[in-house]
Amino acid sequence: MNSSPSQQALRVFLVEDAIPIRQRMAARFGAIDSVEIVGEAEEPGAALAGIDATGADVVVMDLRLTGGTGMELLHSLARSASPVITIVLTNHSSAWFRQACVAAGAQYFFDKTSEFDLACSTITRIAHERRARGLNYSIT
């Protein structure tokens, strides 16, 4: 991979307690052009450490995690000095959960069952927008 800013991949960190689902997420998101899966975790503490260590740009998380919740992670990320785009991808998709996650700092919220493709499209769009900004930056 080219390390110049214009060619830098969107760094995505996955936080999901179910290994098969996390593997599916890694395969689908990692196949997107200009996306790199930089880490995975199943609990909030390891996720925070991994997100910080990898310099992730995007965090895709479930609400149900081992040893904690995605809400805890959202609150921690909102207080973090490092900006990161947070995407909640969960089966707990009622209006209450959506509102609570947005209030806690989530930029995106998707139902894992019915909106997985929409989550993929959103990550694709974010990666392409980042790449376009990098290209525009290197031109000027």
Automatic annotation (TrEMBL):
Claim: DNA-binding is one of the keywords in the record: yes
Keywords assigned by UniProt, alphabetized: DNA-binding, Phosphoprotein
Domain (Response regulatory) ranges: 11-127
A GO molecular-function annotation: DNA binding
SUPFAM superfamilies xref list: CheY-like
Pfam families: Response_reg
Signal peptide positions on this chain: none
One BP term from GO: phosphorelay signal transduction system
Gene3D superfamilies (UniProt xref): 3.40.50.2300
4-aspartylphosphate modification, residue list: D62
Record's protein name: Two-component system response regulator
Organism, as annotated: Paraburkholderia lacunae
